[in-house]
Amino acid sequence: MTDPEIHKGLAGVVVDTTNISSVNPQTNSLLYRGYPVQELAAKCSFEEVAWLLWHGELPTPEELADFQKLERGLRRMDDRTRRALDDIPASAHPMDALRTAVSQLGGMDPTLEQPNGILDPELNLSRAVYLFAQLPTIVAYIQRRRRGLEIVESRDDLDYAENFLWLTFGEVPDDVVVDAFRVSLVLYAEHSFNASTFTARVIASTLSDVYSAVTGAIGALKGPLHGGANEAVMHAFDEIGSADRAEAWLDDALAEKRKIMGFGHRVYKNGDSRVPTMRASLETLAEHYDRQDLLDLYNALEQAMGDRKNIKPNLDYPSGPAYNLMGFDTETFTPLFAAARVTGWTAHIFEQYAANSLIRPLSLYTGPAERHLS
Ligand SMILES: CC(=O)SCCNC(=O)CCNC(=O)[C@H](O)C(C)(C)COP(=O)(O)OP(=O)(O)OC[C@H]1O[C@@H](n2cnc3c(N)ncnc32)[C@H](O)[C@@H]1OP(=O)(O)O
Ligand SMILES: O=C([O-])CC(=O)C(=O)O
């Protein structure tokens, strides 16, 4: 009998269909429900993109107004969530705190216990909207607590992106900063069967609940080969210090066989479709904050990596320094990714429930042959 073909890391394996987004490395395109992500980033609020991912169509003006009203009414953090967060050491990684908070929200949702409470599509949409509204409050609070600052309450006159920045910094920055932040959220929202989304789908496929699936997805996103890379990019920039040191730093890192964070991608081999849009936002921010030095370092490392390995940046490469310029702590970068991606995760969880098959692949056993206790 010949051994089955092994697909390590499921590389190249098509495991299911999806109508949420398409990643096409040949044309270097990314479509959300058919719309190019660049067009959505140029023209849509993050609320509109969230709606599109969940419902398949952009909202009408009335639907958008109702959704915005609903979202604004769900932003306040429950005292029990606050207590759960306060119980975690402030030194813990924000992704650990966020993962705990989402899990705790699941424990506080009594509707999960209703008949069909886990799978009811209407309840699940409400849960997705609730998580969408809550994550900025939670992520902002985690950063403020780490800085020894008091919580800031949401403002109903602000949209999602503005309010997220307000909650974090206690002020709404200039429009160019808000816009760069909104663009990052749109670009991070969805990316087909990436590791965290697949994790969410695996969990949903057991007919477990939305909160469990999102909690698991947060765990998967934390790793530096996935979402954790946006933080790792900034750590690398801190290590390098300035553009003139990029080449030497890279040579040392490659000699030590280190992975260069923010470069490479499982699907895109000729560059990530989202990078030009995020890079343009980074450029605007660098100009706004008068930080050409950061852009120089960005360009120098990209150039050196291209020369030596011909490997291109992924979205985490421009997002890391962009979030740094906006004033976020490095440890908050991956939670920002999670707050954006909760839209894509939940859309995929709904899709999984709607046409479910338990996800359970096979493995080729390579351990000891059958043996017996004497
Ligand atoms: C938004 C996102 O989540 S995007 C991904 C974010 N993650 C990162 O930025 C982490 C750094 N990048 C990586 O580790 C990888 O590129 C991954 C995990 C993203 C993709 O990995 P894979 O598809 O498995 O690529 P694979 O590992 O086969 O790479 C092919 C070759 O390029 C090398 N390579 C790929 N990425 C990098 C990198 N960032 N630094 C150095 N070498 C790299 C590999 O070592 C491998 O070389 P080899 O053939 O000599 O062994
Ligand atoms: O698609 C992937 O493997 C990783 C990625 O870029 C994302 O999740 O945005």
UniProtKB/TrEMBL annotation:
GO terms for molecular function: citrate synthase activity. The active site is at 265, 316. Pathway: Carbohydrate metabolism; tricarboxylic acid cycle; isocitrate from oxaloacetate: step 1/2. Keywords: Transferase, Tricarboxylic acid cycle. It catalyses: oxaloacetate + acetyl-CoA + H2O = citrate + CoA + H(+). Pfam families: Citrate_synt (PF00285). One of its GO terms (biological process) is carbohydrate metabolic process. GO terms for cellular component: cytosol. The keyword Transferase applies. The keyword Transferase applies. PANTHER family: CITRATE SYNTHASE, CITRATE SYNTHASE, PEROXISOMAL. Belongs to the citrate synthase family. This is Citrate synthase.
